[in-house]
Amino acid sequence: xxxxxxxxxxxxxxxxxxxxxxxxxxxxxxxxxxxxxxxxxxxxxxxxxxxxxxxxxxxxxxxxxxxxxxxxxxxxxxxxxxxxxxxxxxxxxxxxxxxxxxxxxxxxxxxxxxxxxxxxxxxxxxxxxxxxxxxxxxxxxxxxxxxxxxxxxxxxxxxxxxxxxxxxxxxxxxxxxxxxxxxxxxxxxxxxxxxxxxxxxxxxxxxxxxxxxxxxxxxxxxxxxxxxxxxxxxxxxxxxxxxxxxxxxxxxxxxxxxxxxxxxxxxxxxxxxxxxxxxxxxxxxxxxxxxxxxxxxxxxxxxxxxxxxxxxxxxxxxxxxxxxxxxxxxxxxxxxxxxxxxxxxxxxxxxxxxxxxxxxxxxxxxxxxxxxxxxxxxxxxxx
Amino acid sequence: xxxxxxxxxxxxxxxxxxxxxxxxxxxxxxxxxxxxxxxxxxxxxxxxxxxxxxxxxxxxxxxxxxxxxxxxxxxxxxxxxxxxxxxxxxxxxxxxxxxxxxxxxxxxxxxxxxxxxxxxxxxxxxxxxxxxxxxxxxxxxxxxxxxxxxxxxxxxxxxxxxxxxxxxxxxxxxxxxxxxxxxxxxxxxxxxxxxxxxxxxxxxxxxxxxxxxxxxxxxxxxxxxxxxxxxxxxxxxxxxxxxxxxxxxxxxxxxxxxxxxxxxxxxxxxxxxxxxxxxxxxxxxxxxxxxxxxxxxxxxxxxxxxxxxxxxxxxxxxxxxxxxxxxxxxxxxxxxxxxxxxxxxxxxxxxxxxxxxxxxxxxxxxxxxxxxxxxxxxxxxxxxxxxxxxxxxxxxxxxxxxxxxxxxxxxxx
Lengths: 383, 413
Description:
The complex is a heterodimer.
Chain A: H1 6-15, H2 19-26, E1 30-34, H3 41-46, E2 49-53, H4 75-85, E3 94-98, H5 102-114, E4 119-123, H6 131-152, H7 158-180, H8 191-202, H9 206-221, E5 232-238, H10 244-252, E6 255-261, H11 279-290, H12 304-321, E7 326-332, H13 336-339, H14 342-351, E8 356-361, H15 372-382
Chain B: H1 18-34, E1 39-41, H2 48-53, E2 57-59, H3 61-70, H4 75-83, H5 92-103, E3 120-125, H6 130-142, E4 146-150, H7 165-186, H8 192-215, H9 225-231, H10 233-238, H11 242-261, E5 271-275, H12 285-289, E6 295-300, H13 317-326, H14 334-347, E7 352-357, H15 362-365, H16 368-379, E8 383-387, H17 398-412
Parallel strand pairs in B: 1-2, 1-3, 3-4, 5-6, 5-7, 7-8
């Protein structure tokens, strides 16, 4: 039994995020690994799978993947494929790929060709949130359910799915509570601690994740020494971060990371699944429409500023409620999903007087050091 | 800029007629505009028969950018988009169009005057995530009504000739919404008779290309990539109009005649190649470079990309168009891509395959290594990877590319 609790436990899980899943596998549990925040974890859980988020590794040089995926693809997905080719995810009972972005789609195919998970499924996620797309996605989610059911060894029940929806909604609510503790100045949780918690809860069963979140909330609510006050309070928007080398660098340069809109952060937790009579309806709407990643096309509304408001108002609200005075756009090179939005989102923030730092980075810890002066300069600027 | 690039030397008579058609196509959009017809900027691969049947004047930004590439004028427009904040790693079709959209007066004159300003924007999204973002940026700039719908990708266990009804219905439903959208703006109801006629002509042109393509199996090959990529212009922008069918009718005659006479592009054909990815439009002369080694491209994935293999039935226009909108090369799974490529390699007796790293199109380039590995593993066919963007010539290193071709061809010999 593990003795560590709260942040210490999260730090431990973070060091080897798949360890808990491997232990559970040894106990006879089935593990499903999935890409990005689009495959519904509720469906995997309802069928007895332990869902884990598949991560890359910024510390691991890409040595295997380039023979299977061209280097023009995003470095995060190249890294995922690389560590998978090296065996890190060999223990998975199911692999759930998704058309979250073009990189994820390509990796889904290549995974299926070269890495033989007992169950391998590709979830086609439509591009838009139109009504026809939501209906289409609902059918795709049913395909996912059917495919997992074949290998899960247990029968699907609506009841189990409803329970899973409640379980994950609770998790989402706990995550939101944790982030709320960073509204105060100084914040209670550092960006690196937050990232360790986020990675952890994505890689352990939801019940354990919920306990961990409760422990962390209690621990940091009572802490006397948190990350302390720095020169700037920033929001991170853009491609995901899954390594604390990145957040530590930012924090070392004099910036408090108080809130983010990234896929290993609020984006995966910010909105609940509605408890609809047909649970697939609630899931389809939540995953396709309510997750705010710019990979999903939303119809343009009114004038440019009305349109930006329609798409990014939540960022303005975050910036206000977390009282940020700078925004960092984290763009992993070749992440077109965010890349095409840079000029518009930058203008949107600058129009409300919040300075923006845009960095295209290569998703490698060896390439981080040159970024230090840019974060330092940004901290000086906004501090 | 400064990169050495070469135009293609074409072998067929018919393809010499393309540039006037291209120029005319763009000039006509300006003429139509003067006559108060609605100009619609649409996505390549969209169901263009519907546009013809509904009296829209469609032009295609992707094709416009390819045309600028072929005219070797795209570099400054791309650079302009970068100055506006778009990464050099974004699609150069997008960057070129963006440059011309925002800064046309300071850029070289595009063929036929370029695209007349849009009254409507329409896009059927396929597996590419770039295009809806690009269309939104244009929508913001021109502030015109826009309709975006999507054609889902075909999963691993499905094939394009057996698409699930749920996929087809998804597209048909959206296409009917698109008809209502167009009707609202033109004030005219869709004339189903005109649509059926357009589908008839679209299918006719497609069937003719199918026949032409078959003839490329002949030894020596009567038609190489240097002609084929250019000859696609009518199917890409004019499918559904009689003029496209007329063009391919003539082309078929010329190619047939060559085959009957045993005439090939090369007098001493030795190596038959397959080439993947969108052509580097600014240096199509690269295809001719292989001739030096008596090698010719006999099949390309790009030239099979426009769904001419999918037969359309004028009596079932919506379903036919839905099928053809879904079934393009970018939308099919790697599994089906692999099967198609292996069959092509056998049928066209391919000795070597060339893959391009085209950083503009990650969707296309993403399958490079998978397909190259497959060809080597299953058929022992050697492969070569070259770096060449589709429209942005600035990172193209001609000497390096040719050096690698030289080494590859020596190995094949």
